[in-house]
Amino acid sequence: MKPIFAAAFGDQWEALPLALQAHYANRPFTRDVVTHQGTLDITLSPAMRRFAWLLKLGGLLVPFEGKAVPVTVYTRSDPKSDSYIFERHFFPPGRPVHTFRSELVVTGPHEVIEIFRFGGGWKASYSFEEGKVIIRHRGFTWRLFGRHIPLPGALKYLFGTGAAWETAVDDDSFSMQTALTHVLHAGPLIGYAGTFRITEVKLDG
Q1: At residue 188, does pLDDT exceed 90?
Q2: Structure pTM?
């Protein structure tokens, strides 16, 4: 059985380094779990600091800043679907543990929708270019009764747009960076970057 993300990367899948293939190793309709351990540097713009409470309420991204924040990530398969569950646990010193969970659905070649709490999501393209997985914003969606409904492109002027990259460090580790930017704002609204090591790949059909 091929991994869920083999359909997203298509003929690029075999070119992915071992660390990134492990990161995306989850297969559909199984109980596969991949465990990642790492740290992230997290930044919020002054504007986003004012709305950190809204991020927390919506279960979105990270509502605080920090350097080298310990993070454990579990990517899980769903035995009843072909979804890729992305479960992140942040352990900021002096703060409660923050959990950020989303569901990724491959909807076509190089096309993935990431769904957050309450059904809102963003569509992104996934490709492997010059040694990096490149993730580019392709619009917003809303999941309603199992359907992914495209939302107006003008929403980028309200919410901004996301982008990310991932690159292998060695056979077990990869570095990554992600940012939410806005056309009217200099620099990222939210950004985080760091390195993760794959500590366990449990393929359990």
Answers
A1: no
A2: 0.91
